[in-house]
């Protein structure tokens, strides 16, 4: 039987940390004489007390977690923390119901960016800050999980990065503290640089901090119903730069900081990611000029780059209605959203690495068919691809397609328009953010969706953020019999 006490103890300590973070929005609202501070103070106090009581009741002995416990810790975190993170939304403004509060919290922690609130312009500052903190902490959490847990758990081919993720010799926690500390410092540095850049380009101080939190987490929550359309165009370029920075492997940036830039330039995943962005932007601009007779301009180029980057990374910011660009650009944006960015970053979706493994496996199979007696090992980034990695990636693709299809059907059965169901499933399971359809409100929220559709999207966001297989393994009876 699996000993869950170390798992519960670790989660309880993170609950205490979340409760402490709730005091920041409380302080902001208190300083602005907004009574909403009481909601955060009560929620923060309750979360801290609960976390401390559970931590005391489940003392840890310092034993490293085994793989089964790592699965439970990963899946449990993204259930417990969103549950607690929803409390301020229910207790204060906008006084959301249970469904909407949970949707907003899960969308934040999974860095999806879809909102359940129909109006954002007049929400208290503390509520906006909390939405940003949820996304920032969720982005940091997924980076640590990707580098520490998933390689050991062999989920979705992540074992390929085991040596780069500080190989833990079958255990999970020996160097997790060191890894988390280095990642946090880098993540914080990028966020501070982003906030400073936004401020220098004309964004207000609070807006700069809030949007830096959601930019560097590739989350996409905004303060305004019009999203980035309220800011000067130069801010879009800054957002694009920092979004790309957050979309490349953090381990590469750490190596750069430590004086070794070569791995960053040699990483085929980064080159492919940047190539996808450049090619997509070029195709859209050519299409607009030749097929829709739209004169090329710096404003159009900036908007295209901004939206291609924000959708590829799963950030979801917007400054214009991309459906007005025509069918081809919309289809391209849809498909690049299913590609995502680089493994080991804050981004979501399938990720470039898995497509590289897929194409390498297909090329190997074609070569084998042409020359049956030829032995050609599969290689990626100069390293041999083990059959276990290839099989794991194929399993992930299969699970992703099946889950995506099932979610589309389920959402359509709730009464949503087919286009809404398609894009809602797309944005949920790939953690992207925007939705298009007749039921979507003017600010892009799901406020008018039926509760059943919102809960299906909550499940989709949870599955997509945790790489699907992580969750399905825990749901198998055999897992609990070991």
From TrEMBL:
Cell inner membrane as a keyword of this entry, yes or no, is: yes
Q: What is its main location?
A: membrane
The entry's cellular-component GO terms read: plasma membrane
Where do the annotations place K(+) binding? 111-112, 219, 315, 431
Q: Provide the topology term for how it sits in the membrane.
A: Multi-pass membrane protein
Give TM segment ranges.
Answer: 7-28, 40-58, 70-91, 133-153, 186-206, 226-251, 272-290, 327-353, 389-413, 455-476
Q: Which UniProt keywords apply?
A: Cell inner membrane, Cell membrane, Ion transport, Membrane, Metal-binding, Potassium, Potassium transport, Transmembrane, Transmembrane helix, Transport
Give one Pfam family, short name only. Answer: TrkH
Where in or outside the cell it occurs: the entry states: Cell inner membrane; Cell membrane
**GO molecular function list:** metal ion binding; potassium:chloride symporter activity
Family designation: Belongs to the TrkH potassium transport family.
Function per UniProt? Low-affinity potassium transport system. Interacts with Trk system potassium uptake protein TrkA.
Name the record gives this protein: Trk system potassium uptake protein
What organism is the protein native to?
Paracoccus solventivorans
The lineage, from the top, is: Bacteria, Pseudomonadati, Pseudomonadota, Alphaproteobacteria, Rhodobacterales
């Amino acid at each position: 039987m699996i000993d869950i006490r170390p798992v519960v103890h670790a989660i309880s300590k993170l609950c205490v940390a979340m409760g402490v973070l709730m005091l920041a929005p409380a302080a902001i609202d208190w300083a602005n004489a907004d009574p909403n501070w009481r909601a955060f103070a009560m929620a923060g106090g309750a979360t801290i007390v609960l976390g401390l009581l559970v931590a005391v009741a489940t003392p840890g002995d310092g034993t490293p977690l085994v793989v089964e416990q790592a699965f439970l810790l990963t899946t449990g975190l993204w259930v417990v923390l969103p549950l607690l993170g929803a409390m301020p939304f229910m207790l204060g403004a906008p006084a959301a119901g249970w469904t909407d509060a949970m949707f907003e919290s899960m969308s934040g922690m999974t860095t999806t960016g879809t909102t359940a609130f129909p109006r954002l312009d007049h929400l208290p500052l503390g509520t906006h800050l909390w939405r940003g903190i949820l996304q920032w902490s969720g982005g940091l959490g997924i980076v640590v999980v990707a580098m520490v847990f998933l390689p050991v758990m062999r989920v979705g081919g992540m074992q390929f990065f085991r040596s780069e993720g500080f190989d833990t010799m079958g255990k999970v926690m020996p160097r997790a503290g060191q890894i988390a500390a280095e990642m946090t410092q880098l993540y914080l540095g990028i966020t501070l640089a982003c906030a400073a850049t936004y401020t220098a380009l004309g964004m207000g101080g609070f807006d700069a901090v809030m949007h830096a939190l959601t930019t560097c987490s590739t989350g996409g929550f905004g303060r305004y119903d019009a999203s980035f359309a309220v800011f000067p165009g130069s801010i879009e370029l800054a957002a694009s730069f920092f979004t790309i920075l957050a979309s490349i492997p953090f381990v590469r940036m750490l190596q750069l900081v430590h004086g070794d830039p070569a791995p960053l330039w040699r990483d085929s995943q980064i080159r492919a990611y940047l190539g996808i962005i450049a090619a997509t932007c070029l195709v859209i601009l050519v299409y607009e000029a030749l097929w829709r007779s739209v004169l090329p301009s710096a404003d159009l180029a900036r908007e295209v780059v901004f939206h291609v980057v924000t959708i590829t990374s799963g950030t979801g910011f917007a400054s214009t209605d991309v459906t007005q660009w025509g069918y081809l650009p919309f289809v391209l944006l849809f498909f690049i959203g299913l590609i995502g960015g680089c493994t080991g970053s804050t981004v979501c979706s399938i990720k470039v690495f898995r497509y590289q493994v897929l194409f390498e496996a297909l090329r190997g199979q074609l070569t084998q068919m042409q020359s049956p007696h030829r032995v050609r090992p599969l290689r990626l980034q100069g390293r041999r691809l083990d059959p276990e990695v290839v099989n794991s990636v194929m399993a992930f693709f299969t699970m992703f397609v099946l889950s995506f299809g099932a979610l589309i059907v389920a959402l359509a059965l709730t009464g949503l328009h087919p286009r809404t169901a398609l894009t809602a499933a797309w944005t949920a399971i790939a953690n992207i953010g925007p939705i298009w359809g007749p039921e979507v409100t003017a600010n892009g929220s799901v406020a008018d969706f039926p509760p059943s559709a919102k809960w299906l999207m909550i499940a989709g966001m949870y599955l997509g953020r945790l790489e699907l297989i992580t969750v399905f393994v825990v749901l198998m009876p055999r897992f609990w019999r070991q």
